[in-house]
Amino acid sequence: MAKSSRTPLPLIRLNLVQPLLDYLDAQGMNSAPFLAKMSLTLADIANLDLFVPAAKMYQLVENLAAYSGDPYFGVHAGEKLDPFQWSPLKSAVQTSKTVGITLLRFMEDAPLDESSVDFVLTVKGRRASFREQRFTDGGMVPRHNDGFTVAYLLT
Q1: Of the candidates 29, 36, 143, 153, which lies 20 to 30 Å from 66 by C-alpha distance?
Q2: Which DSSP category does 111 fall into?
Q3: Residue 71 in this model has a pLDDT that exceeds 70
Q4: pLDDT tens digits, residue range 106-115?
């Protein structure tokens, strides 16, 4: 039996929050004081080797949204995301010529940045559906995380 590559604890690369911090900064809100209140620094965010439990990331995003005062913070940040620069999408969008190949490559690359979800692409005849299956939500509804995901996938 093959050993699973999935870690027992759902983890997310902390650096994936950078586009949300960039959006906050673009709105004229300095993210450094907010991060300090969360016991984080910009150096922590820049550290590509730092992973956090999924529930901690979801809480961080929800707290960022509250700090921003924007009830659609996740969606607005996701709409501004440059997919050619963000790790989980970068390779997929740079090397693919179709939506289907982009989604397949994204599904292959995403586990390098997180182990908290599975992406599922189902094709039946002329219809295709793409969904994310979360392993844990930490007992909360990660609204802004979901809004961010929907917005960047639509983009």
Answers
A1: 153
A2: G
A3: yes
A4: 999 888 899 9
